[in-house]
Write a structure and sequence with these properties.
alpha+beta, 3-stranded antiparallel beta sheet, two-stranded antiparallel ribbon, 5 strands
Length: 177
């Protein structure tokens, strides 16, 4: 079992077992949906589910010091077929309220996955995961081939995943290919 540092050698780390846990959760979700004839979740639906899970459980997983408000999540994605190559996919509270990204099945699955990841941190790192670590697990998992888990164009990769500060959201960016 390996752990590695993220963000310039700061004390933030992610490990193989937490990445494997999230990979399995996303793979199971996509396969269950495909077996029913449904599409896998979209990236905006996943971002909305992650934001919801973080809001509901951050204090339990990360501790109150990381329970700061945020407006949503922003993913920087790269597409192999683009000239400029980089787009932003942003899901903020307004997008979730207007609904097209809300998906209870994805939200429940992400909540379960983060609970499993929190237990792994407590068992192996003897502490709770930080919010940035949870986001880094998702970012790492989606950095190679997110089309395995999501309804997203082949050759798309997630380069970065960050919280959107309140009041800094760009309207109308909750779309993905």
């Amino acid at each position: 079992m390996g752990w590695w540092r993220i963000e310039n050698g700061h004390d933030l780390v992610i490990g193989d077992s937490v990445v494997d846990s999230l990979t399995l959760a996303l793979r199971d979700l996509a396969e269950a949906r495909r077996a029913r004839g449904d599409a896998p979740p979209t990236l905006p639906a996943l971002l909305a589910a992650i934001a919801d899970a973080l809001r509901r459980k951050t204090a339990m997983w990360c501790g109150p010091e990381e329970d700061t408000p945020f407006a949503g999540l922003r993913a920087r994605v790269e597409h192999d077929d683009d000239n400029d190559g980089v787009d932003m996919v942003e899901v903020v509270d307004e997008d979730v309220i207007q609904d097209p990204v809300r998906d209870p099945e994805v939200a429940d699955r992400m909540l379960e996955a983060f609970e499993d990841i929190a237990l792994i941190y407590e068992d192996e790192a003897e502490r709770r995961p930080r919010r940035r670590e949870l986001l880094a697990v998702v970012e790492f998992t989606l950095s190679d081939a997110p089309d395995e888990f999501l309804a997203i164009a082949e050759g798309t990769r997630v380069l970065a995943l960050n919280v959107v500060a309140p009041g800094s959201a760009a309207p109308g960016t909750a779309s993905a290919r």
